[in-house]
Each structure stands twice: as structure tokens, then as C-alpha cells.
Amino acid sequence: MKKSLIAVPIGDPAGVGPEIVAKAVASKEVADVAGCIIVGDKTIVENAIKITGADLRVHVINEPKEGDFREGILNLIDLGNVDMAGFEFGKVNGMCGKAAYEYIAKSIELANDGKVDAVATTPINKESLRAGGINYIGHTEIFGALTGTEDPLTMFETNGMRVFFLTRHVSLREMLDMITKERIKDYVKRCLEALKRLGVTDGTMAIAGLNPHSGEHGLFGWEEVNEITPAVEELKAEGYDVVGPIGADSVFHQAALGKYNSVLSLYHDQGHIATKTLDFERTIAITNGMPILRTSVDHGTAFDIAGKGIVSAVSMIEAILLAAKYAPNFTK
Predict the structure, then answer these.
(1) The pTM is what?
(2) Per residue in 34-46, pLDDT tens?
């Protein structure tokens, strides 16, 4: 079986990114399905291997085609951009923020050039990015800018349940103004196109309700009556396989049982709580709507345990496995 080539930037050197990368690359389940191209700093990676006790040998390469993908080998594109004496684990550091950005940018370059099949990202720290002079708020914005994608879509996948987000990093007050028929219709069409790109062509998308009991016909709010239901009805009339609004207290459970191929969550915490309660470590973010595939762990830099070798790599392993699962749909 041909392995998908997955670029993996090591993330913020002061966080747990290098450690979860070392543990993931050392795992047999990753080695069996993916050829990982690690983008980072050799000193940082070797230190992470030492900290975690991973049974790995570093193989420095210039191009993915030079990789040796046998078990026990970590293929590294070494950017040599970090001074170990210049930072502490668990502390915001501009050098680390700048380095983390450079690892991501190199990984995106490899994917844009068709040298890898996907990118699986690790945690970065927003304060460190800013301290390093990087003016992006996070991964999604970096990927959007470096792939020429205006508004990438975020999807979570957890044990087969897929969740999209109509709104994300805005206050609840702002979110209410963004619940419009036009926005819902646009997002549903884009989400269904993204699913098709992932190879998901069967099943129904459900639209979550906003208010308790989806508003009870206006008793608990009018967003369902005025915006959400009209959007769903018009989408159905146009031939799209969607249903809703369905109460948020039941729609995610139904999706987890396989009734729907995906759910459109209306705001950040609505979907985050559902997926992370189902399985926190296996909630993986997929950035859709770009010419390349990106998956990611959905946890932070864990500064409180960085450098101790105790971090779980389950999420990193899942992110790589999911990238390998969907990558063939992006390389046809």
C-alpha cells in the first residue's frame, strides 16, 4: 500500500508539539499508513525524542522524496531556527513563535508544490506568534493566506461525527447578528462541497437549532422562524439534502449514531462541547475549502506540562491518521 506523505510542523518549541510529534512518529499505527515529513529544528526534535524516550533515529532530508519511511526513522527537514538556550519550556517566547510560523509556512509550501499529500499541524501559541512579529491570529488564517483561500471552513471530526461551524471566534452577541438566511445557505453549500472533496457524498446534513427547543415557533426566540427554517426550505427546494433546525440537545447525539453525515453548528461552543464531550482527544480539526488538506490536533501548547514527556499523543496520531485517510481525495 502506498503511504500518503504528511508534512508535520513541530509547533511551538516551548510547548508539547515536538513531544507529541516524536511519540506519534514512533507509533506503529502511524508508520503503517503515513510517511511523515517533520518540519522543525534538529536540536529541538532530538531533545523531544530524549524527553519522551521514543525509539527513533533522526534522518535529515532536504526534500520529501529523500525520506526513509521505515518504522523507527523520523524524517526531518531541519530549518535550524531555534537556540535551545534562548527559551524556557512553558513560557511565551518570540523566537519560538516565529519558528513555529516558519515550520507551518514550509509545510504549506511543500503541500502547495505537491511534494506532500497533506499537512497535520501541532499546537502554536498566539502570544508567542505576536511576540515574534507574526500578525496572524492562528493556523486557519495562516493557511488561508498562504494558499490564497479567502475564508477556509473548519470542520471537526470525532469518531466519524463531523461538525461544521457557521460562526467561530466572535462573541455570542455578535453571533446572533450573523445568523442570517443568506449566510446559512452559503455555508451549507460550501460545507457540502467540502464533504464531496473529502469523498463524503452520501447522507444528510443537519442544521442545529439556536434557541431552546429550536425556539418553539417563536416562544423562545425568532431566529429559527425568520432565518434558519427559511434557509433550510430554500436549500431543499434547490435540491440540497439538508434538514433542520434540529434542537442542539439532540442533533449531535443523532449524528454520532450515524443519522446525519454532518451537523452545521451555529456557534463555537455549541459544536466544540458536543465533539469534545464525545471524545476530547480524538476531536480533530480539518480545514476545508483550500487546495490542500490540513488536519490538526485540537488542543493547545500545554505549557504547564511541556518538556516533561508526559503529554498524550493520541490527538496527534489521530490527526495524522485522518490526514492519511482523506489525502487520496486531494491527490487524484
Answers:
(1) 0.89
(2) 999 999 999 999 9
